[in-house]
Amino acid sequence: MGTTAVGNSFPGKGWNEPVECKWVVYVEALIDEIFLAGRHVTVGLDHLARQRALIVKLQSDGHDTSEARELLQVLEQSQALHIAFLAYLRAQVDARSGTGRGPDENRTGG
Fold this sequence. Notes:
mainly alpha, disordered N terminus, rod-shaped
């Protein structure tokens, strides 16, 4: 796996653990976050589809759809945030893949 440096920019307990160990933990955490964010996007798509179908049903039955449309806008905004966060997480992985650097080391260039 290469050389392991001792001591790094991670403060707190375990500060003297090898950098590689902390990098693996960081990558695993990113993968977990990506999975969860992807799940939120998937669930959000389902919510949007159901809300749109509800609006169609309400409209075809002659009901007011203004509140349902307002909720749809909130759901769409929420979905946009989920998608943006997922893209951010993926960019974090892409920016660090293959570098062997820890999470803080890429920001400082060191």
